[in-house]
Amino acid sequence: MEAALRTDLGAGTEIGRSSGSARFSADADRRGTILKYKADRGPVAFVVASFGLRLALWSLAGPWICALCVLPLAVMGMFVAPINHHHQHVNSFRAGWLNRIYDLVLALQAGIAPYGWVLHHNLGHHLNYLNQPPDENPDESRWTRPDGTQMGRFEYSVDLLLHHQIDIVRVGLRHPRYLRYFLMMKLPLWSLLGAGLWFRPAETLLIFLVPAFLTLFHTIWATYEHHAGCPPDNHLVASRNRDNAIFNWMTGNLGLHTAHHKRPGLHWSLLPELHREIRDQIPESQIATTFW
Prior knowledge:
single chain, mainly alpha, two-stranded parallel ribbon, about 0% strand
């Protein structure tokens, strides 16, 4: 399973090899022993600490305290979500079994089941994001209606929320190996949630299920700005970038979106180098420097 992930987690369409000397093959000092990249130490620590807080609340707090924690936990999950995105493109750990455990820890906070990102996002959106309806092979994160007119942000978010599971299965039918992994990982995920609901139903609902749903909806809401309204003519104009240092520190360079679509399998810590190399090819209209 891990060998397959190494080849396909970054699946997507490149816009050509970059010019210049940068090869984006991480130097030895960037590589880790347990983690593939040392840059993931902070994100992994945050994800584990956030999960530990949830477990402590689930174990020790009553329903009323858990209810007060729903929104704060959802906000924490909103910072877990981009870490999950990056992990699904380039797995964080060298050992496959650690990646699968980490998948579950991420899923319980971000609301997206293991391999859901791989199917819907890596093997769906990244390959089809230039194809907006009425194209016959539309983007899984489509932002136009069937007649080609642009959706509003709320309409897009609800449409994607309602259809993403269907699209995961549809993409999975073209990639049965990953659909099989997706279904296999449902077993430990549902087992954990089922055990939680059996022993502490209210706490499981308030600490894990409701915050994860809110995080998932926010994730969908946030992705609207990545492409909506951008001309789907070519890769250099089809993404909106947010070149703001604070934003990219908080999201793992998710604002450098053209670079990410150029090299979907490139580790998030290497995106600034690629962004600098292609910066002058991106129209200014597709680059914002503000946080919001």
